[in-house]
């Protein structure tokens, strides 16, 4: 009899929560408070106004002071630079005059010492003398022009012709100094006559036939004679400078003043043209310096008649203004002004002087800062109306000023204002906190009340708060007592500590505890949780518990059931307290039913994310009613707890129950019957035995729940086979026999449901890895600038060969690309496409159908291996890497190196998981040796080597290569190279599961010695690839027998299935030995010689982190447990399966009932069919009869694979 929800229409009400109340203040107090508030508010505004005004005034003064300081620095620094500039310019000008004067004195000295008569004077080494003059004076050239009287003209022309060799000598000296690249001598001889320009200074040269220029009553010519640097164009020699108006004016001024004369800024470049490279458009001044025929005494002075020649020096202002100020000082303008009404401007930036242009171009905004001084020493140069006297004007620019303007005034102002603002904020915050103090206290009280409400019932909470209030009041009164000073406080504190140390209670109030005479307690335990959690990640374990317990909490709130606590996977709840209610047993029964249903729903949904066997988890619930003592056991982390015999009995009722059932005590059953719910109850046929109460009669609460059949071992946490009494076992067998037909159909439905869930989970795992492959590939293509290939990848498999021939000693993994890792997008954002995802699920479903319905080597085993591979891949780590301190890219690179490239290649990880999925495809349920012994066609095809493994690879690969899976293949492998790499990984991984073949074992051992032997530790790419190959093979080997290195219940479950499979083979005549004869010792040897050594190798690989220790520990524990219990386990297995055969429950007998067995259980039992044609006909018939679970493409593939399987043995060449 079952019960439904027709009695659920009971009135419910929410638990009341206590609220702290505050009494209303009197009217007078309110008025006083409002008045005080207004005064305080006014005071706040006054303080705020004062702070604001002070901030504005002080900030403004700070800004003005800082800005003025910068202006003072600017003006002071400019003044210093201006003085320095004019001093340097005047020094350069005086140096030029002094150098010319020295050369003039040297010429006079030579003439006197050689008794030479002017104008017939040729100064020896004039090139060198002039060179040093030019360096000292920064002039471009110096020329000597002697005065020739009109009556000496013809004589001079002859003299010049006879003494022109000075030009060649000068050119030779210049060439030696590398002053010129011209190695040729002068092109022509000098003119044999004095000459002038026909028109001005740019016409053709003509003979100077005039009478000369009158100087002091005598007519003179002043031909250019010697020059340094020597002229390349000799035509300039004998040019009469007095024929040029500017030079004539300057010469006359010099004659009259008997002092050097400066010209205006003009272009007389024809004098030195060819000998000097210069920009003649920039300002130049020409200085005429007198040369005297003799020296005067100290008291005498020169007269005009003493002048016998003139020196003409060319001074470029570009050279004079260089190196005025140091590097880094920029933006100073120099304006040169002369008495000839000329202005020209230079900009000084560090040591460089840049000509701006003729005219005054300085910024008039800085006129007030202009600095002016005369150019040169007036005492040594002529200053007449005819001469051009220069003035130097120095001005700053905005560029120079900006160097002294900064954001410091603003910063200082902001800092000062910020101090005031901060002060104001401190006052405001202080006031704010004072105003909110009471609100915060009340809010804290409300939050505390909420937390206490969640942990304790309302009445318990109220008592806790009341006791705390009384304690605080007592403390306050004690502190107000006489003599409460610093010493008294210290004394009380020490005494309180002593009380605690002496073990006396620190709680003076009465303990918080009550007796509730009528309550129902529920214990709900997750069956199989410990074994399930042992193969999961911690995050997965907590994900399950949080999801399930949250759902239970919601049901508890709606049913007004009080949740007491959760201990591990046990959920404890109670009804009837803290609020007493008469229907506590009915409410708890409904709550237990809801939890049972909700648990079954959640586990099915969570299996997609948490992996295989999650859907097999279920609840075992026990209920007992009676008096309960409940209260708060005070101390650290106090909690509301239940005590008493009722709680202990409820725990015992739960532990002696069965999975997916609700177990009731007699007391609870009586209450339900009294409430008119007797039709919910079913009396348990046997009794449970307890040490204290002896035999107890119990009941089952009949619940119409979703059909859940236990898979594998029925043992669960805390319940072993011994917990089920013989009477209960007999009843279960009778019920099973009575409902055989119904359960056969139900089992078939459950098998198909479980198949779909396993297919969904495997598809989801592969899809996640596919997204990583696509993300990695996209990043690589983006860096290389390549595009996706539309041509499907191909792989030519050698004709006539077998899979085992493709096993590689070393598989080469891709090199690590840090840029690709850096720019890789989030794999979760990758869209695989609807077509590819559908093909992936169809492929996984098709692979599942190719697994035979063996007890061990079946699709569930493949999913278990897949889950272990995924877990080991997720546990791969790199030691000594602090991921918090190292960036992600450094961590990824270190991880790549340490794991030999496995973690950085998604295709390798996908291949490992893919190999785990297909590694036992079409396994016949007997070892390879038996197939060889039977002479099976498949054994002949593969020459009796690794028959099952090679068969699995061929079937799975042929399926993947089918045209229906083009999109899927393109996602896995886009290029032929990727396809080759993928094939190598799959072949090596699947072939590694053959641990019996001696040749493969020898190859693996030799490879291990090469890679991990201490003397062979060579850090090379080849050795790293060898290590990677070993790690991949050990990964799938460990996963293939992972049940031996997991929790004892997991090991027992799969150990029994393997025994069942081998026992079937023996009973069907496909094995010579009864497995029970060697099972115990065989497992011991298997642990000692394979499992434990393999677990140690996992640890020696050094890449699996804590998983290697976990696997080794479980292997050693299971070995010890098997040694202790193995004999009893084998006896029970023999008893169980002997009884099944005696009752005609053998699996082969079930095959005859074809209408109730799913397609995947009937397709590949070729050993039960008489011929191949009958097998193919059976396959096609069953596809026609199928209920539409498989798509048309999958059905076509089934027929194609079945046909291929029938013909593969015909000839080896057809493979």
Automatic annotation (TrEMBL):
Q: Where is the composition biased (Basic and acidic residues)?
A: 728-751, 1190-1199
Q: Which UniProt keywords apply?
A: Lyase, Membrane, Nucleotide-binding, Transmembrane, Transmembrane helix
Q: Which SUPFAM superfamilies match?
A: HD-domain/PDEase-like (SSF109604), Nucleotide cyclase (SSF55073)
Gene Ontology process terms (BP) = intracellular signal transduction; receptor guanylyl cyclase signaling pathway
- Signal peptide range: none
Give me the segments passing through the membrane: 45-66, 410-430
Q: Identify the domain of life.
A: Eukaryota
A GO MF annotation of the entry reads: guanylate cyclase activity
The record's annotation in Pfam families points to: Guanylate_cyc, PDEase_I
Provide ranges: composition bias, Polar residues: 710-726
Can you supply one Gene Ontology CC term for this chain's record?
A: plasma membrane
Q: Where is the Guanylate cyclase domain?
A: 520-654
Q: Where in the cell is it found?
A: Membrane
Q: Where is this region: Disordered?
A: 1-27, 708-751, 1184-1215
- Domain spans labelled PDEase: 775-995
Protein's recorded name: 3',5'-cyclic-nucleotide phosphodiesterase
